[in-house]
Amino acid sequence: ISSITAGKGNAGDINVTTTGDISISGTTPQSTKPAILGNKSSISSTTEGRGDAGKITLDTQGRGKLLLSGANLNNSIEKDAVGNSKGIEISAQSVDLKQGSFILSENDGQGDAGNISIKTIGDISISGTNTPSTGSILQEDPKLLVISSISSNTNGKGNAGKITIDTQNQGKFSLSNRADIVSTIGKNGIGNGNDINISAREVDIRNEGSIRSDNSGGKGDAGNINIK
């Protein structure tokens, strides 16, 4: 599902509303092949020209879960584009990201990346892969490691968006197996990073899970990391 502007004008918003689950999967349940090596499913709104990318909203009205398995949510300003992205907003009973799934808000052109907001009344789980075994295709090529991620970055001229994760003090937040949450100013970025705010009943980070806010060689200030 995509909404794109490649000329002059704004891309439209994408709204998905249910009273049950939302499942976006890029691999079959029987597959042992990492999603990064296969096909990914996606919902995206991007600008490739002169105009804003639309907002992506997924809402199960607190009744259903959101599952991303080998899938992407992408709200981006592409290289040479001028405009803002409006961000990604998720409201669900619980959220589960795995098999190389990512939620991304990014500026590679000129403009501000949108905010990412995830609100639940249950658990939020983000999981990548375990350390690959000797002789596996992932061991032979570390670039193929399956890393699930939530990130808001600026690699152009403009600011990164804020990342907010909130279980409303009811659910557990877990980050495992190389999964990460990142706000980055890239080496060509001119702008500021933004805050990463996590609020949950319990927080569990393990097996090389990471939360990072950094400047990787651009011009600007990294954001704060707040965990409550």
Q: What this model shows, in words?
A:
The protein has 228 residues and is mainly β. The protein contains one helix and 20 strands. The longest helix is centred in the middle third of the chain and has 4 residues, at 137-140. The chain is globular. The N and C termini lie far apart (34 Å). The relative contact order is 0.14. Residues 29-37 and 133-143 have low confidence and may be disordered.
Give a short summary of the structure:
The chain has 228 residues and is an all-beta fold.
How are the secondary structure elements laid out?
Elements: E1 2-5, E2 14-17, E3 22-25, E4 41-47, E5 56-59, E6 65-69, E7 71-77, E8 88-92, E9 94-98, E10 102-107, E11 116-120, E12 124-127, H1 137-140, E13 149-154, E14 163-166, E15 172-176, E16 180-185, E17 196-199, E18 202-206, E19 210-215, E20 225-227
Parallel strand pairs: 1-4, 2-5, 3-6, 4-7, 5-8, 6-9, 7-10, 8-11, 9-12, 10-13, 11-14, 12-15, 13-16, 14-17, 15-18, 16-19, 17-20
Q: Note the total helix count.
A: 1
Order of helices and strands: EEEEEEEEEEEEHEEEEEEEE
* Biggest β-sheet: strands ordered side by side in the sheet: 1-4-7-10-13-16-19
Major sheet size, sense and barrel closure: 7 strands, parallel
Total number of strands: 20
Which structural category fits the helices and strands? mainly beta
Helix content: under 10%
What is the rounded distance between the termini? 34 Å
Overall pLDDT confidence: 89
The radius of gyration computed from the alpha-carbon positions, rounded to a whole number of angstroms, is: 17 Å
Label the overall shape.
Answer: globular
Poorly predicted runs are 29-37, 133-143
Beta-strand percentage range: 35-45%
